[in-house]
Design brief:
Elements (H helix, E strand, L loop, with lengths): L1 H8 L2 H21 L5 H20 L16 H41 L2 E2 L1 E2 L2 E3 L4 E17 L4 E6 L6 E2 L4 E6 L1 H36 L5 H33 L2 E3 L4 E6 L6 E2 L9 E18 L11 E5 L8 E12 L5 E8 L11 E7 L6 E5 L4 E3 L2 E7 L5 E5 L1 E5 L3 E6 L6 E3 L13 E2 L18 H13 L1
Parallel strand pairs: 1-23
Antiparallel strand pairs: 2-22, 3-16, 4-11, 4-15, 5-7, 5-10, 6-9, 7-8, 9-11, 11-14, 12-13, 12-15, 13-14, 16-21, 17-18, 18-19, 18-22, 20-21
Helix pairs in contact: 2-3, 5-6
Length: about 475
């Protein structure tokens, strides 16, 4: 039993090793003493085989279970799971943060695109001067259209356009047959009324004498007296009608109301003339007094206090280069126009030789002692709205400020601004009509200065191309 137990305790691997060692020893021993002990070696092998067989008889047949390993500690497993979960959370947070950042960037870009981008310029300062030059319009001192006061046909006109006429000079003659007949009729009616009045006077005197002797009643005498008074009134009305028609007869001749020049003639002989200046009336002539001429100009509010009535001024016209026509300030409106913020001023200019023509455009030169800060802005920076001329200024915080301005001279591509902006302001050029006060805008960056153009690489001449091609062919 002890031997069997010892065999059981011995692991199969160790038993196998011992048998292998014994087999090896038994096999190696004859090799060493093969020549000297051949019989002894065979006996030893037999004994070894017998011993192995004895051991194999007592060996239990069965499968040995593998050794049981102890389970992994729970703390290590939890740590591995926690690390895995932490990695998943970090990866999800990174992905979520990327999406949020992309959404914010997209929202900011969209908001930036909704804000309009504008280009700005700075007003250019001008050197103040002591002479104010403003545009002016030349007009006739007196101008009047002439209409007919009676209806008829034009017999003849005596003065044409450009004719200088004196006051009371005959201009045209009108034939009025209907008025002539009405006048004759009213004169005859007046004679009838006069005869009736005389008869009524005789009857009134007679009845008054009879009343003194009580031959007639007082009522009858009063009726005769009243008839006489009524006849007198009828005669007065007939005289008024006769005088009216006689005056209409006098309007058959058209006369000049004042000394001047005829600037228009609208009728020819034989034309039907209707009296009055209404829809049916037809204008016959236009007459204008051209000596002196009135020159109207609008003085900006900044210079209004420098304009004095009686002050000498000079008028220049493009068709008379180098010449100045002297005049005087005749009157001012004594009020600033709230729409244009200007003072309407009239300058009278003598025109005895008639060189200046009404309706012309000129420039009025005023001598002023006030130096006003003036700037110029491009014409395309103006906003023309119901509130008057304005410009859009961008404030430092990027918001729009609509400012009213006072315009001075017009230089074509630029305008002189007398008030409302300064050289430090940023003025929007080509402003859209949708701009509003306080609106947020982006200011476009100024383009970089132009880089000097690089010279293009020199091209080979035809001869050189042929030479290069021949060299390549030889190679």
């Amino acid at each position: 039993m002890s031997a069997e137990n010892d065999f059981k305790r011995t692991p199969p691997n160790s038993q196998q090793a011992e048998s292998d060692n014994a087999r090896g020893a038994s096999q190696s021993e004859p090799a060493q003493g093969e020549e000297e002990h051949p019989v002894g070696g065979q006996a030893q092998r037999d004994e070894e085989i017998e011993r192995i067989q004895q051991h194999s008889k007592h060996q239990r047949v069965g499968i040995q279970k593998p050794p049981e390993l102890p389970p992994a500690p729970p703390r290590k497993a939890l740590m591995m799971v926690g690390v895995f979960v932490l990695l998943l959370v970090i990866a999800g947070a990174i992905t979520l943060w990327g999406r949020v950042s992309h959404s914010r960037a997209l929202a900011k870009e969209t908001e930036r695109e909704t804000i309009p981008t504008v280009a700005v310029v700075h007003p250019q300062a001008e050197k103040p001067d002591e002479e104010l030059v403003l545009p002016g319009s030349l007009q006739a001192y007196e101008e009047s259209p002439i209409y007919a006061r009676t209806s008829g046909y034009l017999v003849r006109w005596y003065k044409d356009i450009g004719s200088k006429v004196d006051k009371g000079e005959l201009l045209a003659k009108i034939d009025t047959p209907e008025v002539d007949q009405e006048l004759n009729q009213m004169r005859a009616a007046r004679e009838q009324t006069l005869a009736q009045m005389e008869l009524a006077k005789i009857s009134s005197d007679r009845w008054e004498n009879l009343r003194k002797t009580d031959s007639v009643s007082a009522q009858e005498a009063d009726q005769q007296v009243s008839g006489y008074k009524q006849a007198q009134a009828n005669l007065t009305a007939a005289d008024a009608n006769v005088h009216r028609l006689e005056q209409l007869e006098g309007f058959k001749d058209v006369y000049a109301p004042f000394t001047g020049v005829l600037t228009r003639r609208n009728v020819d002989p034989g034309a039907l003339i209707n009296a009055g200046a209404g829809v049916a009336g037809r204008e016959l002539f236009d007459i204008a007094r051209v000596d002196p001429l009135r020159v109207f100009t609008s003085v900006p509010q900044a210079y209004a206090t420098s304009i004095t009535v009686g002050e000498s001024t000079a008028i220049t016209l493009q068709e008379f280069p180098g010449q100045k026509f002297m005049g005087k300030v005749a009157r001012t409106a004594e009020a600033i126009d709230p729409t244009t913020r200007t003072l309407l001023t009239e300058v009278d200019v003598p025109n005895k030789d008639g060189r200046l023509l009404p309706g012309s455009f000129g420039q009025v030169h005023f001598s002023v002692a006030v130096n006003v800060n003036k700037v110029t802005v491009p014409v395309n920076a103006m906003l023309f709205r119901a509130e008057g001329p304005q410009v859009a200024v961008v404030s430092p915080d990027g918001k729009i400020q609509l400012r009213h301005i006072s315009i001075g001279r017009d230089y074509g591509t630029t305008l002189e601004i007398l008030g409302g902006v300064s050289p430090s302001d940023q003025i929007i050029i080509n402003p859209p009509d949708s701009l509003e006060d306080g609106q947020q805008v982006n200011v476009a960056q100024a383009p970089p200065p132009n880089q000097p153009a690089q010279n293009p690489p020199a091209q080979n001449q035809p001869g050189e191309n042929q030479k290069n091609s021949s060299q390549k062919g030889s190679k």
